């Protein structure tokens, strides 16, 4: 017979709050409390806490406290990740974040969902759907990603967006619900490479 945790991670209906899940939540609350109480002089300690909290982390992971999550153990993050203040990752299902990803403040990754029927919902049954964030993604401030969504590689999501459906690679998307606005292409690359070149020329000439 499957445990409630197994049902949860298999994205089936489950009831939260059994002994195993309570233990997992208690551990995540302890680690996030310690993380959120750190100072700017404790960068190495912050990294240690995040590595203990998350299932998997790459190198160069930086998150501004405060941060909240359900379990932490269902979250994996690639190399070169930055998250600004007040982010919240509810990981009753798996959350995977790629490499070179940036989050603005108050980004929410929300895997939990609930039955639409009120009587079933009131019984305490719930479920989750995995969220995947690709490589080289930038989520602006106050972006909310809903259960089951994948955000493609090299994509930018505008601030305040509510992402309810998958977003493809190499686009700018925004809105509620979030929709593709335009592709990111060669003109963008040339524009920003020229801006970068001008920056370094100014630095070298100072």
Automatic annotation (TrEMBL):
Superkingdom: Bacteria
Return the protein name: Acetyltransferase
On whether tRNA processing is a keyword of this UniProt record, the answer is no
Signal peptide from the UniProt entry: none
PANTHER family under this entry?
ACETYLTRANSFERASE YJL218W-RELATED, GALACTOSIDE O-ACETYLTRANSFERASE
* Residue ranges crossing the lipid bilayer per the database entry: none
Q: Which organism is it from?
A: Vagococcus hydrophili
| Positions of the Maltose/galactoside acetyltransferase domain | 5-59
